C-alpha cells in the first residue's frame, strides 16, 4: 500500500514542510485570514475539499487511526494499547496521512468518472501479497477488515484502491506500452550485448594497465611507488590487511588459493577479487595458535598490500520472461506517474484552514 505516483508523493512532501512561505503551499486554494491547526478544529469542520468532496477532522482522525493500526499489524504489534514507537510514528506521519486522503480521493474520483474497476483476478493477486504483509496469510480480506473495527471500511476502500492501480495504468496507456512484443525483446537484448561488449573492452584496458604494473614490479620496482602510480585507491600502498586469517578470504577463492603457497615478499599475478582486479604482495606471514573453545589450532596470519583496479560489470544475459517482467515494471512505474499527472491536471483542491495543519511556523522557530 505504498505505491505513490510521483506527482502526489511530491505533494505529501509539501504538506510535511508546512506553509511558512508562499512557495511551500500545496496545490489548491487557501481560504481564510488565519491558518488553523487540526487540533483546534471541531470534528465536523472541513479541512480539505477535493473537487468539491469534503473531508472533515473526523475523516482525518479515522484515517489516522487506520494508518496507526495498519503499521502495528505489519510490525506484529497489538492493534490497541500503548506502543511508543507506533505513537511516535503516528505523530510524524500526520502530513502523509492527509496526503493519502487527498491522493486516494483524486484516484477514486478519476476511476469512477471513467468506469475503471479492479478485476477479480487483480483483487485476488493483491490480496495474497497484502495478507502476507499484514501477517495474516490464512485469513480473508473481510476477516482482516473486522480486526480493524471502526476503521474496517477504510481498510476495504484502500484495498479496492490499490487493487485498481493496474487498471488505472492500463486506462492511461494509450500507446499500449504494456504490450511487450518481439521488437522490445530484441531491443533490450541488443542493449545488453552492447553494454557487455563495452565492459569487456574496459576490463581489457584495465588488465593491460596492471600488466604494466606487474612488469615494473617484476623488474624490481618499489611496490609503494608502483601502487601510487597504478592503483585506483592511492592509499593501497599502505598496509591493506593486517592480522587477517586465511579463512577470512573464503569469499575470494582466487586469493585464498594463491596465499596457500605464497611466501613473505611474494607478489601475485593479476587476481580477480570480489571488488576488482588486484596485484597483492605478502609483507609478512606467520603462524599463531588461536584457541576456539579450548582447542589450539594453528592459523596463518598475513599482512598484505595490493594494487587495485576496478572491474566493470556488464549486465547479465536475461531470458525472455525476465525481459518482459523488467519492461512491464519499468513502464508501469512511468504510467503510475502519468496517472498522477492526469488526476492532478484539472483538480480543484481547497484548504479552508491552510496546509500547515499540525504545527505553527512560529512554534517551529522557537
Strand content: 5-15%
Biggest sheet details:
4 strands, mixed
- How many strand elements? 8
Strand/helix succession? HEEEHHHHHHHHHEHEEEHEH
Structural class determined from secondary elements: alpha+beta
Query: Based on CA inertia axes, which overall geometry fits?
Result: elongated
Query: From the 3D coordinates, which CATH architecture of the largest domain would you assign?
Result: Orthogonal Bundle
- Annotation field: number of helices: 13
CATH class of the largest domain: Mainly Alpha
Helicity, in percent? 40-55%
How widely separated are the two ends? 36 Å
Rg (C-alpha, Å): 30 Å
Q: The CATH topology of the largest domain, please? A: Triger factor/SurA peptide-binding fold
Q: In a few lines, what is going on in this structure?
A:
By secondary structure, the protein is an alpha+beta fold.
What does this entry look like structurally?
The longest helix is centred in the middle third of the chain and has 37 residues, at 182-218. The protein has 2 domains: 6-178 and 320-365, Triger factor/SurA peptide-binding fold; 183-309, Chitinase A, domain 3. The chain is an alpha+beta fold and 366 residues long. Helix 2 (57-75) packs across helix 4 (94-114) and helix 5 crosses helix 7 (152-163). The chain has a 4-stranded mixed beta sheet. Strands 4-7-6-5 form a 4-stranded antiparallel beta sheet, sandwiched between helices. The model is unreliable at 1-6 and 8-26 (pLDDT under 50). It contains 13 helices and 8 strands. The relative contact order is 0.17. It has helices at 6-17, 57-75, 84-92, 94-114, 120-133, 141-147, 152-163, 165-172, 182-218, 223-230, 253-259, 320-345, 361-365, and strands at residues 29-30, 46-50, 53-56, 241-245, 271-273, 276-290, 297-309, 349-351.
Amino acid at each position: 500500500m505504498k505505491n505513490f505516483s510521483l506527482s502526489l508523493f511530491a505533494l505529501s512532501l509539501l504538506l510535511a514542510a508546512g506553509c511558512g512561505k508562499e512557495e511551500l503551499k500545496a496545490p489548491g486554494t487557501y481560504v481564510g485570514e488565519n491558518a488553523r491547526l487540526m487540533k483546534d478544529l471541531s470534528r465536523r469542520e472541513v479541512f480539505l475539499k477535493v473537487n468539491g468532496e469534503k473531508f472533515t477532522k473526523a475523516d482525518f482522525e479515522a484515517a489516522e487511526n487506520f494508518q496507526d493500526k495498519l503499521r502495528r499489524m505489519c510490525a506484529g504489534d497489538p492493534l490497541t494499547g500503548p506502543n511508543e514507537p507506533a505513537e511516535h510514528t503516528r505523530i510524524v506521519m500526520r502530513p502523509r496521512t492527509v496526503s493519502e486522503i487527498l491522493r486516494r480521493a483524486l484516484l477514486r474520483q478519476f476511476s469512477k468518472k471513467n468506469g475503471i474497476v479492479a478485476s477479480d483476478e487483480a483483487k485476488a493477486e493483491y490480496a495474497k501479497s497484502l495478507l502476507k504483509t499484514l501477517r495474516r496469510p490464512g485469513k480473508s480480506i473481510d476477516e482482516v477488515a473486522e480486526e480493524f473495527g471502526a476503521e474496517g471500511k477504510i481498510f476495504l476502500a484502500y484495498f479496492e484502491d490499490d487493487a485498481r492501480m493496474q487498471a488505472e495504468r492500463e486506462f492511461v496507456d494509450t500507446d499500449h506500452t504494456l504490450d511487450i512484443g518481439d521488437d522490445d525483446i530484441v531491443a533490450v537484448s541488443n542493449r545488453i550485448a552492447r553494454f557487455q561488449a563495452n565492459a569487456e573492452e574496459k576490463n581489457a584496458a584495465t588488465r593491460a594497465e596492471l600488466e604494466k604494473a606487474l612488469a615494473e614490479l617484476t623488474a624490481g620496482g618499489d611496490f609503494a611507488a608502483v601502487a601510487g602510480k597504478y592503483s585506483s585507491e592511492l592509499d593501497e600502498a599502505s598496509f591493506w590487511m593486517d592480522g587477517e586469517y586465511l579463512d577470512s578470504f573464503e569469499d575470494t577463492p582466487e586469493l585464498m588459493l594463491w596465499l596457500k603457497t605464497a611466501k613473505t615478499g611474494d607478489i601475485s599475478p593479476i587476481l580477480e577479487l570480489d571488488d576488482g582486479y588486484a596485484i597483492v604482495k605478502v609483507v609478512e606471514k606467520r603462524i599463531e595458535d588461536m584457541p576456539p573453545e579450548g582447542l589450539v589450532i594453528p592459523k596463518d596470519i598475513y599482512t598484505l598490500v595490493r594494487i587495485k583496479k576496478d572491474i566493470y560489470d556488464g549486465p547479465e544475459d536475461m531470458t525472455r520472461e525476465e525481459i518482459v517482467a523488467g519492461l512491464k515494471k519499468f513502464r508501469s512505474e512511468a504510467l503510475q506517474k502519468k496517472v498522477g499527472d492526469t488526476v492532478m491536471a484539472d483538480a480543484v483542491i481547497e484548504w479552508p484552514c491552510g496546509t500547515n495543519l499540525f504545527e505553527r511556523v512560529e512554534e517551529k522557530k522557537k
